[in-house]
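Q: I'm building a small set of examples for a reading group on sequence design. Run inverse folding on the following structure and report the sequence directly after it, with nothing in between.
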């Protein structure tokens, strides 16, 4: 009998995951990952770890499976939290959930599961896995979840073949309503529990408070792009160049292009595309962050979510940070690969061309995109399959 360790989070998805594995004949062990100890930044009643741990334990008892608590807080701080602080300090927008899956759930947690003689680890992600065999070599494929409203493949965009070989995603073929029905029929103790929000296995946090643990407030100016520069910005957006290095280049803003409209508490607290939190009133059209200059502590803004200052024709990823789940699809030797792409969770897919240069992997959009932020992950799909990804350099 194959042994599976399930990351039991206290939520309904992982609970039904454990049940389905039992149905499929696996020996199932439940493990709750405790990744955080500091309650000062967690919003009360929004996913406290103690409640989640108790819920996970009750589910394990209900299903009759062993239950363990694994403290990964040291590894989580070193690999995820410190990464977040570094990225924000550099004016980039990190995605800790993507890193949590790569570094914690399918690395540290996987190794702990192997110490329990597990053949696989399983999570409650809405994502599917398939495999093919070519020339005697098994190739694993990461596919979008059957429920388009809950598809979580984006969060797994940094997994590799070795990690996928050990991963099971039993609810990937189900919709969320179907999972809820199963939980109710089983009378699981958490059947009616709401979905958690916030950082991976921490919960919903007060992000400014969280960041201020490491990044001190620093007063600076909020600048707004003057309307007189609209023609110039539109010209850049409509550049007809065929060179991906040109099309992926971000727009450069200077204080001479702007009006001073207010004060902020630190450029490193903001992200491109952000609307809320600027605290600048008296604007006929809402202000959106279009660029961050952490060196000079400036936040550049523009009016409206479709302002050309937010528009991009493409983006660039350092080649060493480009990750290919399907290495054979990497476009080399001057080839161009057409993909569907997204740069944030739940964003609709958009068409793009991917090519690989000497230093950068370029992603050129078929249609202009808005709010591209450095540090986010761009994920590449062909049909339902997620084939690669990379952290946006510029």
């Amino acid at each position: 009998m194959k042994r599976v360790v399930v990351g039991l989070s206290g939520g309904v998805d992982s609970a039904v995951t454990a049940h389905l594995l039992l149905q499929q004949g696996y020996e199932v062990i439940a493990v709750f990952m405790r990744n955080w100890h500091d309650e000062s930044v967690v919003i009360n009643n929004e996913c406290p770890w103690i409640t989640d741990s108790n819920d996970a334990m009750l589910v394990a008892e209900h299903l009759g499976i062993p239950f363990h608590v694994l403290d990964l807080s040291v590894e989580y701080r070193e690999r995820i939290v410190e990464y977040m602080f570094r990225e924000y300090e550099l004016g980039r927008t990190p995605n800790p959930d993507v890193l949590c899956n790569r570094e914690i759930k399918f690395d540290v947690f996987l190794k702990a599961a192997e110490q329990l003689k597990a053949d696989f680890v399983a999570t409650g992600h809405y994502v599917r896995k398939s495999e093919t065999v070519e020339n005697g070599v098994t190739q694993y494929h990461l596919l979008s979840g059957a429920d388009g409203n809950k598809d979580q493949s984006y969060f797994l965009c940094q997994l590799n073949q070795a990690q996928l070989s050990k991963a099971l995603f039993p609810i990937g073929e189900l919709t969320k309503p179907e999972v809820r029905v199963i939980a109710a029929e089983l009378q699981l103790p958490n059947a009616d529990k709401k979905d958690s929000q916030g950082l991976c296995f921490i919960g919903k946090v007060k992000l400014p408070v969280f960041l201020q643990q490491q990044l001190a407030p620093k007063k600076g100016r909020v600048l707004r792009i003057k309307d007189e520069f609209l023609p110039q910005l539109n010209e850049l957006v409509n550049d007809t160049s065929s060179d991906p290095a040109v099309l992926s280049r971000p727009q450069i803003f200077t204080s001479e292009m702007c009006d001073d409209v207010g004060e902020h508490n630190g450029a490193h607290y903001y992200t491109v595309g952000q609307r809320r939190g600027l605290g600048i009133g008296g604007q006929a059209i809402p202000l959106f962050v279009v660029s961050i200059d952490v060196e000079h502590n400036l936040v550049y803004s523009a009016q409206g979510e479709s302002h050309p200052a937010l528009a991009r024709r493409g983006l660039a990823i350092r080649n060493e940070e480009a990750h290919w789940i399907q290495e054979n699809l990497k476009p080399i030797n001057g080839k161009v690969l057409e993909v569907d792409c997204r740069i944030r969770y739940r964003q609709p897919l958009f068409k793009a061309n991917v090519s690989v240069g000497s230093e950068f992997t370029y992603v050129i959009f078929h249609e202009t995109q808005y709010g591209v932020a450095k540090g986010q992950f761009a994920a590449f799909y062909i049909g339902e399959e997620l084939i690669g990804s990379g952290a946006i350099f510029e």
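The radius of gyration is 22 Å.
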